[in-house]
Amino acid sequence: MTPVRVLAVASEVYPIVKTGGLADVAGALPIALKAHGVEMRTLMPGYPDVMRLVSGTAEIRTWPDYFGGPGRLLAGSHDGLDLFVLDVPHLYARPGNPYVTTEGVDWPDNGLRFAALSRVAADIGHGLVPAFVPEIVHAHDWQAGLAPAYLHYDNRPRPATVMTIHNMAYQGKFARELIGSIGLPWSSFDVHGLEYFGGISFLKAGLQFADRITTVSPTYAREIQSDEGGMGFGGLLRQRASVLSGILNGIDTGVWNPQTDAHIAYRYGAEDLAFRAANKAVLQQQFNLDSSDEAPLLGVISRLSWQKGLDLLLEAIPTILGEGMQLALLGSGDRDLQERYQAAARANPGRIGVVIGYDEILAHLLQAGSDALIVPSRFEPCGLTQLCALRYAAIPIVSRVGGLEDTIVDIDEADSSGRDATGFKFAPVTADALAGSLRKANTAFHDKPAWRRLQRNGLATDVSWRGRAGEYAALYRNLVAARA
């Protein structure tokens, strides 16, 4: 097997920095690719947590003035990941979230911050690090979207490029004037370049110039070619359909493993599912819910937003209560949704429990103790929560969109699909359709043999990166062969 060298470019990487699923993919994929002969190094910004956690750093390059201040390129590692770190303190040495201030407002210089990341990615692609000259530069989301553009406009021999879309809703839109300060020619401000409704879009740059475009599920790859799903880029993606494909995400099955998980109260596997009841009891205690094994406990781990359909779940609360179910929700986001969920918990003590924020340990316990996990998204590129739910024998109740459609087999479609049922899917994405799935799930919950079959089918589903990493490796090799 001929080795392939790939530079991944990502704005967040688990377990160092995480705000969403992008970090999980950027952290797990490089390790999974090793078995497929792919040597991947990941370039990321030098946020404070990165500088604190990355070990064995060696200085590769220094600049007295890199996008407005001194900077360094470092090589290092963390938890099995080989990393390049762009240490530019005036751009990255800031508290909290990588993208927003403590008030939740975008950093005003985000365009400059992530242009700097893409510029050094292109330079590494051109041989800035002689010990690691990549054959492919793989950019993740808008924060890395300028890397294919820089390589294109540099107008010299370059590596192949891949652009992965994790969520079309985030597009990296900035004023056209930014072009003058990030080292791209003004000719790039064009409908066939970065121009987007009078400004520029970093995501468009990646979609326009990458040799291959991937997204994180086959269904989402089809959805984003529509005018609605493409969110302004449907036409461009239809033009580039021949180089667009969907590769499902996986999860790190070492981190998410109920047989070894140190974050849950009682460990278990397919042969000892009875221990889930003990986790459920601890979860009910944590969320101040009534102690009951006969009440189906619905879990939610989500950003509270319109995209995630959490307003629809609020409308379905009368169904949850009427069916004798309980709800445990962990998440944060839209302030109005936060307040409405907290009000629902106050109005229904013992039946609804809400924790605002994110807690990794509590997220694991929710997977291990919930009878079902609800993901009612209006659109969902892939989704990782439902994959974890399958791994933990929590039955997914999901909308028929994106990766949710691709990863869950509805109880009513199992026979026709030839696959074993693993959960419940609803369409259209409305409160009424969600309520119908909740009622159906409640009926199945009280049929213990049927529920156990769903759980065991989920546990038998391969949600790892093994096969998915192989698809990326094949894509890389095809690209390299095409350029030989």
UniProtKB/TrEMBL annotation:
The keyword Protein biosynthesis does not apply. Pathway: Glycan biosynthesis; glycogen biosynthesis. HAMAP family: Glycogen_synth (MF_00484). Keywords: Glycogen biosynthesis, Glycosyltransferase, Transferase. Residues 5-239 form the Starch synthase catalytic domain. The gene is glgA. The lineage of its organism: Bacteria, Pseudomonadati, Pseudomonadota, Alphaproteobacteria, Hyphomicrobiales. GO terms for cellular component: cytosol. It is an enzyme of class 2 (transferase). Synthesizes alpha-1,4-glucan chains using ADP-glucose. Its EC number is 2.4.1.21. Residues 287-441 form the Glycosyl transferase family domain. It comes from Bradyrhizobium nitroreducens. Signal peptide: none annotated. It holds the Pfam family Glyco_transf_5. One of its GO terms (molecular function) is alpha-1,4-glucan glucosyltransferase (ADP-glucose donor) activity. This is Glycogen synthase. Belongs to the glycosyltransferase 1 family. Bacterial/plant glycogen synthase subfamily. It catalyses: [(1->4)-alpha-D-glucosyl](n) + ADP-alpha-D-glucose = [(1->4)-alpha-D-glucosyl](n+1) + ADP + H(+). One of its GO terms (biological process) is glycogen biosynthetic process. ADP-alpha-D-glucose binds at residue 18.
